[in-house]
Amino acid sequence: MWKKVAIVIGVLIVACVGAAAMQPEDFSVQRSVDVKASPDKVAALIADFHIWEKWSPWEKLDPAMKKTYSGPSSGVGAVYEWAGNGDVGKGRMTVLSIDPGKSLKIKLEFLEPWVATNTTEFALAASGDTTKVTWKMSGKNEGLMAKFFGMCMNMDKMVGSDFEKGLAALKALAEKGG
What we know:
This protein has helices spanning 2-21, 39-47, 144-152, 155-176, and strands at residues 26-35, 66-70, 79-83, 90-99, 103-112, 116-127, 130-140. The chain is of the alpha+beta class. Strands 1-7-6-5-4-3-2 form a seven-stranded antiparallel sheet, with helices on one face.
């Protein structure tokens, strides 16, 4: 009896490890919104980390979060570091590049409760008096544990709703005069 139970448990463990190993290494989460504002106006709200507290969904999760800004006040080289409760953890963002009126690229580093480095991109596409803002985060599930986590926790479901909240707040801020 115990031998059969041990064999079944062993097979289940091997199956889980095998399934995790076969998971894709890359992941991507993306959401978009149309904003009645110019690409330059929207880009200014994204490129200045001091303004993120007005629209970022994570800022509201820990009102006591410690924030540090370094480098230029906005644009390429601007750095925002945070340390907060278990909902926000600890991390850093750095603006890597800006294509004026078209895109912004940010290096996103999570330091606690886990370590990961992802790329965040904001694409801006003008159409008349509207700008389509697309917020995308991509990264890698490196290692077996990260792949297992990715198998159990869908990154799109975990982060997608936060992107939607953030984009809605960004839209409201840009359209009211930001």
